[in-house]
Write a structure and sequence with these properties.
single chain; 291 residues; two-stranded parallel sheet; 45% helix; 15% strand; globular; binds NADP nicotinamide-adenine-dinucleotide phosphate
């Protein structure tokens, strides 16, 4: 039995789909408010709970051999990115789980002080490595599926909002490839007890994204490019009303003002370990946008 957290998220629902295609038994950890009917139709066991509650995590772990942690935190890094994962790892140890796959983030080890999600995930990585469990830690760069709503907007308007340096590099990964890597991590021997950066096959400049949208929709992009300090202004205003959101914006600012890309040799290594070619951003977008 696989336990998947974040099972209704961009990564998690793809992981559940793949596992069910392979006829694996899956327990999907969802909230009562989550949109989980698709997972139920695919034959996943639905566990309704909240990752803020240690008791729910303990119950969800009963009878599990594999844990795949893909949940996000919506700004609550301490409770969800940190505490919930620590609790999952403790439960995995108590239940002698065979393998724990943790979705971290690229750049987690760079010591960004102002990015609570990065700090939480780095602490979880260390806890998992020291746990004695079999693990695979995956550090993805940006996900291609995040760009689908922006592409739809672009299709209508031709507009693209690019905050910060347009020359910053990233290697956006197909969310379907990431899901496949996650699922295969428990059975590919070379993925065992590894920390792997995960990106797409090309190193893109951020300005390449509207260019690719333009190519797909045959439209000249109109790029609006405010400097990253607009986020600082926003943070100062938000901080007066809601300090937690102000902290969450720190992670967002970190993402906007730094480069997140995998080296060519890291991508080659990934393709070798998992034995399939990674998909380009353009191919991913064309598949989903049916163009
Ligand atoms: N998006 C990226 O570009 C990116 C890049 C690198 C790494 N990552 C990491 O990848 C992971 C997944 O990202 P994603 O984009 O797939 O996330 P996502 O689409 O935002 O989904 C987040 C998931 O977490 C669940 N969740 C949130 N709070 C919960 C709670 N209290 N109890 C139970 N479930 C809860 C959500 O459930 P609901 O459906 O109920 O909201 C949802 O299923 C995250 O850890 C993220 O940090 C993401």
């Amino acid at each position: 039995m696989f336990l998947v957290t974040g099972a209704t998220g961009g990564i998690g629902r793809r992981v559940v789909r793949l596992l069910r295609q392979q006829e694996q038994s899956v327990r999907a950890f969802v909230r009562l408010t989550s949109r989980y009917s698709e997972l139920e139709h695919r034959g996943a066991e639905i566990f309704i709970g909240d990752l803020h509650q240690a008791r729910d995590i303990e119950k969800a772990n009963q009878g599990v051999q594999y844990i795949i942690s893909t949940h996000g935190s919506g700004g609550d890094a301490l409770s969800l990115d940190y505490r919930a994962n620590i609790e999952l790892i403790d439960q995995a140890k108590a239940n002698k789980v065979e393998h724990f796959v943790f979705v971290s983030v690229l750049g987690v080890d760079r010591g960004y002080e102002d990015a609570p999600v990065f700090k939480a995930k780095h602490a979880v990585e260390r806890y998992l490595v020291d746990s004695g469990l079999n693990y695979t830690i995956l550090r993805p760069s940006g996900l291609a599926s995040n760009l689908l709503p922006l592409a739809e907007q672009f299709r209508e308007t031709g507009l693209y909002l690019l905050i910060g340096d347009s020359k910053n590099r990233s290697s956006i990964v197909s969310t379907d490839d990431l899901a496949r890597i996650i699922v295969d991590s428990v059975k590919v021997p070379e993925a065992r007890n590894q920390i792997l950066p995960v990106g797409g096959p090309e190193i893109l400049l951020r300005e390449d994204i509207p260019r690719i949208f333009g190519q797909i929709f045959n439209k000249q992009p109109l790029v609006i490019n405010p400097p990253v300090f607009v986020i600082d202004g926003l943070r100062n205003v938000v901080g007066l009303l809601n300090p937690q959101t102000q902290k969450a914006l720190g992670t967002y600012r970190t993402l906007l003002s730094n480069e997140f890309f995998c080296k060519k040799e890291e991508i080659a290594n990934l393709e070798r370990i998992f034995n399939f070619p990674l998909e380009t951003l353009e191919s991913f977008l064309r598949r989903y946008l049916a163009v």
